[in-house]
């Protein structure tokens, strides 16, 4: 049934007439009007998002239409940096400019639908023309970013430490922790000197039991089965969002020395199944990373993209860059991706639907990360096995029982209000994802998982892998130390079950990685002693330690392989091949990285070791199948749009 002229909002009809007066083609106006009706936006928004007309040319035409000066540039030194200037980052409408020796000018980016009112106002007050000028909306936003940059980055670096110091990793070890740590260390040395054998056995037994405890959570995940992946989620009576009801979604990507991969990244982000007019894609770069900035500016980026330059200031970390950019995020939801990520195009829609259906205290949704280069080396192969176990088995089970999730560093979808409420990312924590997942839980929020994946590549060389893993372990150490500043407060915040889970996940992982080579040495020496006669029979305590350590080491290998293999697809198992046989070597590399992290935590706690990325020559078959669909172009104009 055809809709009549009355079905078209008056605002769209008026807007179409204004655009026609600017000389825009009638079919173009009609096509954009159809999209505006579908998406609940304006013709102007659809026109600029589509890229059919350059933003500067459009606003220059508006300036001619109303008889105002058009500015092609806004000198940042002439812009007032007042208290509420940052509001113009999320909704830029106007800024004040004052050139030396000239009267103050208010620079505006008017909307086509309000041009009629602006013309009437100028006719009533002709003198107003001398104090108004028009500039592109993006130019106004860029000027605001530059004017408040130094103030904003200082606030970003200090915000969490000043507002919520109990959650900040800026202090590696507090005075209280140093005091009790010194007492425990002194007591241990005294016991070791007084009774070295008993002390060594007690320490060995304690480490072995802690190692065993940390293994139980992954063993439990293995025995739990894969029911969560197959069971039908209980659907709440919430209808699917229509196109017009979709909120603005912010996509943030922190980039540093990534000039070679930006084209692949932009291509992947352009495939996201979300209306362009409701996409806010922020490419966050260090201001002195000229190579990456030049590569981005060389691309023809759509209006949904913006480049945010972070002023150079210590610490030079990804979480600092993300927290800085959050000042300008316009979405109701925000998702974080890495430079090499290729997210499933439907991931935003799944996350939005899930947010609409879950309880309001679910503040974060973690998408699974899928490694696509398992064939390239034994390291990337085992990395894929590890990620499959973590993102497809362990995290969904933790989410099901409302336990704390140590988030992955990418593909985290947040309710932006909750993210800001907890203080966003800690600029001083180099594993900001795990820290934020635990902090959300402590503040009363929960995290859950979704199904549509993000594809990415794993390191293929030992040097790159060790550098990345060292940073991760250093950040996990920071996170553990932050939580353990006041253990009783942490138990009160998290609940006893979640606190124990945190200790098994993070504390146990640290203990097992650090203790692993020591336990392997003990097992090897004990085995040689038993195999080389004459050998005395082992005493019961030694046999107990040997049995526990044997279970710990080989149980770890078996659980890691079984948990990961159970989550891999047939194609992924084929790509992995027999590389799982190298799991013992992989674990020794893990231990080396953990010990290296302990040293770095003392020497340079906030150093961010960059992981280099290279573009993929071609997408895998799995990616092709998931990204082959494109958004339909919702066609011709409905009746009533003036043409």
Automatic annotation (TrEMBL):
Signal peptide: none annotated. GO terms for cellular component: membrane. It is found in: Membrane. The chain crosses the membrane at residues 178-198, 204-225, 494-524, 544-568, 580-598. It is a multi-pass membrane protein. One of its GO terms (molecular function) is glycosyltransferase activity. The keyword Transmembrane applies. Residues 617-643 are annotated as: Disordered. SUPFAM superfamilies: Nucleotide-diphospho-sugar transferases. Residues 333-526 form the Glycosyltransferase 2-like domain. Keywords: Glycosyltransferase, Membrane, Transferase, Transmembrane, Transmembrane helix. This is Glycosyltransferase. The lineage of its organism: Bacteria, Pseudomonadati, Pseudomonadota, Alphaproteobacteria, Hyphomicrobiales.
């Amino acid at each position: 049934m055809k809709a009549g002229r009355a079905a078209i909002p008056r605002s769209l009809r008026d807007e179409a007439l204004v655009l026609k007066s600017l000389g825009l083609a009638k079919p173009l106006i009609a096509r954009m009007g159809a999209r505006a009706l579908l998406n609940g936006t304006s013709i102007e928004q659809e026109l600029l998002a589509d890229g059919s007309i350059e933003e500067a040319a459009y606003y220059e035409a508006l300036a001619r239409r109303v008889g105002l000066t058009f500015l092609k540039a806004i000198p940042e030194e002439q812009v007032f940096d007042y208290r509420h200037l940052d509001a113009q980052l999320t909704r830029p409408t106007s800024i004040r400019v004052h050139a030396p020796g000239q009267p103050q000018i208010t620079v505006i980016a008017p909307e086509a639908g309000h041009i009629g009112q602006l013309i009437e106002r100028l006719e009533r007050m002709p003198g107003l023309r001398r104090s108004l000028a028009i500039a592109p909306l993006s130019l106004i936003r860029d000027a605001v970013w530059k004017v408040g940059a130094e103030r904003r980055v200082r606030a970003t670096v200090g915000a969490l430490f000043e507002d919520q110091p109990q959650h900040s990793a800026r202090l590696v070890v507090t005075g209280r922790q140093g005091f009790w740590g010194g007492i425990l260390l002194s007591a241990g040395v005294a016991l070791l000197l007084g009774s070295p054998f008993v002390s060594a056995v007690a320490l060995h037994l304690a480490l072995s039991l802690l190692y065993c405890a940390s293994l139980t959570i992954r063993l439990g995940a293995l025995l739990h089965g894969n029911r969560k992946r197959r069971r039908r989620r209980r659907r709440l009576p919430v209808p699917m969002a229509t196109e017009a009801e979709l909120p603005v979604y912010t996509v943030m990507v922190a980039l540093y020395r990534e000039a070679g991969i930006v084209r692949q990244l932009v291509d992947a982000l352009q495939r996201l199944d979300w209306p362009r007019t409701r996409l806010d894609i922020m490419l966050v770069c260090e201001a002195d990373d000229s190579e990456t900035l030049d590569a981005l500016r060389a691309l023809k980026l759509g209006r949904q993209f913006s480049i945010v330059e972070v002023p150079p200031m210590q610490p030079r970390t990804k979480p600092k860059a993300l927290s800085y950019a959050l000042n300008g995020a316009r979405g109701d939801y925000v998702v974080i991706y890495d430079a090499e990520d290729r997210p499933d195009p439907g991931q935003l829609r799944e996350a939005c639907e899930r947010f609409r259906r879950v309880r309001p205290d679910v503040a974060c949704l973690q998408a699974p990360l899928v490694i696509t280069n398992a064939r390239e080396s034994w390291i990337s192969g085992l990395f894929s096995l590890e990620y499959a176990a973590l993102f497809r088995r362990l995290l969904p089970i933790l989410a099901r029982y409302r336990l704390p999730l140590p988030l992955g560093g990418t593909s985290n979808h947040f309710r932006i209000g909750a993210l800001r409420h907890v203080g966003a990312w800690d600029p001083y924590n180099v594993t900001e994802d795990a820290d934020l997942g635990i902090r959300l839980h402590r503040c009363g929020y929960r995290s859950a998982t979704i199904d549509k994946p993000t594809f990415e590549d794993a390191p293929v060389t030992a040097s790159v892998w060790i550098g990345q893993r060292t940073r991760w372990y250093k950040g996990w150490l920071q996170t553990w130390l932050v939580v353990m500043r006041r253990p009783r407060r942490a138990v009160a915040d998290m609940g006893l079950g979640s606190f124990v889970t945190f200790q098994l996940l993070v504390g146990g992982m640290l203990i097992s990685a650090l203790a692993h080579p020591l336990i392997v040495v003990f097992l090897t020496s004990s085995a040689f002693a038993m195999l080389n006669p004459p050998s005395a029979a082992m005493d019961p305590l030694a046999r107990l330690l040997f049995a526990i350590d044997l279970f710990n080491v080989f149980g770890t290998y078996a659980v890691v392989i079984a948990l990961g293999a159970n989550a891999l697809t047939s194609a992924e198992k084929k790509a992995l091949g027999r590389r799982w046989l190298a799991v013992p070597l992989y674990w020794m590399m893990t231990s080396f990285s953990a010990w290296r992290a302990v040293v770095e935590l003392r020497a340079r706690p906030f150093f961010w070791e960059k992981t280099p990325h290279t573009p993929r020559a071609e997408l895998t078959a799995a990616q092709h199948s998931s990204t082959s669909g494109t958004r339909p172009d919702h066609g011709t104009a409905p009746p009533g749009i003036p043409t």
